[in-house]
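Moderator note: this is an archived Q&A kept for reference. The question asked for a predicted structure of one protein chain; the sequence and the answer are reproduced below.
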Amino acid sequence: MKRIFLSLGLFLCFGAAVFAQNVEYKIVTVIESIVPGGIGRSRMISSEEARDFKEFTTSRSEEDGERNKSDRGEIRLKKFDETKLLNFFNLGGIRFQNIAANDAVVTSKINSLSEEGWELVFVNSGVESYAGEDDDSGIFITRYIFKRNRQ
């Protein structure tokens, strides 16, 4: 009986590790302008290239002060999808039609990724706006994190 439980426990531990290694993640970022007058730019961005963070990471301590020797330009992607979205504001103020249109476009992207086997697992959003005297800029950013089993 002990052997059965031990074998089952080992299978579950190693089986979970094997399944965890077969997962990949994808992030889709939506940036919506909250600049009054509609002069901002709103986009949905998703990368089509991969980057290994290790190539751009340096471990250091306070004593060594060594910086990463790689050029930041190497991080930039040339292959990504950029979907135009409408701005939240126009000269008349908040455009609720624009918000509904953006929702429809983002929903279309989510549905498309779902058909490709991606599962939406987390959504994170935030607003950047100084909001000080004469502030006339800001963005609303939302990151959609998807995962799927590697194929």
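Archived answer notes: The first helix runs from residue 2 to 21.
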